[in-house]
Amino acid sequence: MHQDLEEALRKISRLEELEKMHRSAERSLRESEENYRRLFELAPLPIFVTSGDIILFANPAAARLVALPGPQSLQGRRVLDFIHPESVPQVTERREGLQENIGSEAPQIRQKWVRADGSIIDVEVNSTSFIYEGKKAIQVFARDITEEVRAHESLEVFRNLVDQTNDALFVVDPPTSRILDVNEKACTSLGYSREELIGLRIVDVEEIFAGLEDWLVHVQELRRTGTQIVQGRHRRKDGTSFPVEVSIKHIRRGPEEYMVGVARDMTERKELEQKLIRAKQDWEDVFDTITDMVTLHDADFNIVRANKAAEKVLGLPPLNISRAKCFEYYHGAECPPQGCPSCLCLLSGKPAQFEIYEPHLKMYIEIRAIPRFDDNGKVNGLIHIVRDITRRKAVEQELERYRIHLEERVRERTSELEELNRVLQHNISELESAEERARKYAAELERSNRELEQFAYIASHDLKEPLLTIATDLKLFERRYKGKLDPEGTELLADAFDGALRMQRLISELLAYSRVGTSAKLFGHTDFGKALAAALDNLRIQIERTGAHVTHESLPGLIADQVQIVQLFQNLIGNSIKFRRPEELPRIHISAAKRGGQWVFSVTDNGIGIPEEERDKIFELFRRAHKKEYPGTGIGLAICKKIVERHGGRIWAESQLGKGSVFYFTIPEKQVEP
Description:
alpha+beta, 5-stranded antiparallel β-sheet
């Protein structure tokens, strides 16, 4: 019993020691976590802790890296929200590899990130995986290397530019003439690698320097002047050489100094100079072999250059000794003669050409004067070309004699043709008689149309008169018995009066419909924009009363009956205003587009629309899609159809009930008179 008690006491004591150790460990762990958190938050390096694609937490440096106000802004955000699309595959692959190997560390890589403000940065990333609160997590250390990357790229661009230039570049140590650096062109032009050239001296590749002493004399002069341009010859690795022009600059940076030389291969230029010399000689040879007299004049009529033919014919003195006035040698005159091509050319700056007989030279000559200009575009002389055309003139005179003979033969032949013409005139007379009969028929048809129009007008007038009498009597009846009729009688009287008015409108619109073809005007050029403006002016009161908003695009000019085009627009726009929705102001837009050989016009509105079953019938005479709600005769759209068909087009409508309608009509671009 005593032993059991001692054993129990020992166990209790052990438990108390373990409890103390556990509390001490927890306290140390909390202190360690607190220290880690302080280090984590104060660390200048951005740190992210992620699980899957979600950021668990991050330090303030991480928030600054992605342009967010604080670490709390990053919690719960997706990692890929900040990864540039081109780095997404790489990030996904690294994350999967780290999660499969907990405790592993991924190699350092570079990635492109997208900050919250949309800017793109380059980031150097180190990642390790671990278990955090029972979940697989990744700790990411990031460093912004954008400036380093840009600097490296700029350096690479500069190096590429230097290497891509067509001139060889050398950086030389002045006291020793050692080559410190070169570009790619220097290597290719001399046949050395960069490493080989950097080990040489400038006196090893430049033939104009006999040795180092000669180079040092040149260095002293360059230190004094700062820059020099020298003509030299560079020696290639294979022993051959080529001419160069070298621009050398002395540069001092504190105690250090450099010579920078830019050498241009002058081989092509030297060859070009030789070619120019040969070309000049070739030109001289050609110039002297031209059989025409060719002279070059300055602005004061002095002959400054002449070919052999001109020297021989004109007897010119040596032009390098004295100046010869062109008018003295060409015309034997003391001043330029009237109408002189050289004068005209110098004054106008345009080529001049004449053919004259020159007594001084005893020959017919063709003169061509071509102006020459200085760098400012001012005439400073001319090229004077003279050709002896005496033999050509003799041939022309012979041709003139042949021409006269030919004209005599033509007159004889003309007499024969006149006889044939009399026969043709007789036939033409017969055709004119037929045309006269056709004109009489057309006049008879026009008279018939006028009579038909007059009949329609008289008929409508005769119908209007009794209707007017009925309407007047009904109005008088209403006034006389106002208040004496029961409601039903009053309603019947109002219906009768409205019926009479509708009948009057119907007769008027029937007359308008019948006159579309009979009273139409001849087609002419019609500005559809002006026709639309006239229609809108006619509808001005309706537009202002309803608050309608009418817009239009640029409309073309076509061959049409302008009056009918105004009526066409007026009817379509008036319909759009009439059939408006009560809860919305009318909006109407007119446009036109060329399709093939015709123009398609459209009138679009936001009205009540047309039932689908009525869409193909609304252009029929007396057809009305909304009979009860809106007044009308059902003739307006029938008139539109008749006008469009008279112009060789067609008309149709598209509509959504309750949303609006679009009326289309076509007019051929090249209209033929009906």
